[in-house]
Design goal:
mainly alpha, 8% strand
């Protein structure tokens, strides 16, 4: 199966989302995984946000993945 890459124009900066998800979890007094209801797909998507620690503001994520995480967590 060929790798399907997202066009760079369809990606957004990951740092604001990562910070909002972490803040939403802290506000509720739960872990990020608990906030995501241990949904395996969302937990994996969120784990990719940790690239922010390596790449800083250069780390970007697909818009649809960011939208799904923001919707589930209430992160805005």
């Amino acid at each position: 199966m060929a790798k399907v890459a997202v066009d760079p124009r369809g990606k957004v900066q990951a740092r604001p989302l990562a910070e909002a998800v972490e803040a939403a979890a802290a506000e509720r007094g739960v872990s990020v995984d608990q906030l995501l209801c241990d949904d395996e797909k969302l937990v994996k998507r969120c784990a990719r946000l940790r690239g922010v620690h390596r790449e800083g503001d250069r780390h970007r994520v697909p818009f649809r993945a960011a939208e799904a995480l923001a919707e589930v967590t209430g992160a805005t």
